[in-house]
Write a structure and sequence with these properties.
The protein is an all-alpha fold. It contains 3 helices and no strands.
Length: 83
Amino acid sequence: MLPACYCHAVANLQVKDVPEDIHRRLRECARRRGKTLRELVLEALGKELTHDEFEKRLRLRSRVRLLRAAGEVLAEVRVERDR
């Protein structure tokens, strides 16, 4: 195939020595979700990176001092909602 036909460079990732139990569970999970093992792993990696980025942004934020405990406010909101 001509090099001009390739739109994007794609990297490959190989994971060696995956325990058989984990591999089996991943295959079963992918099957239940109607996905390939590749799709399942890429989705999991994407979620992990998103979570990592969220934690990084959260650490950069300054702390907020509440006048009351968050649990108290939540309880009040639930009482109002359930009326």
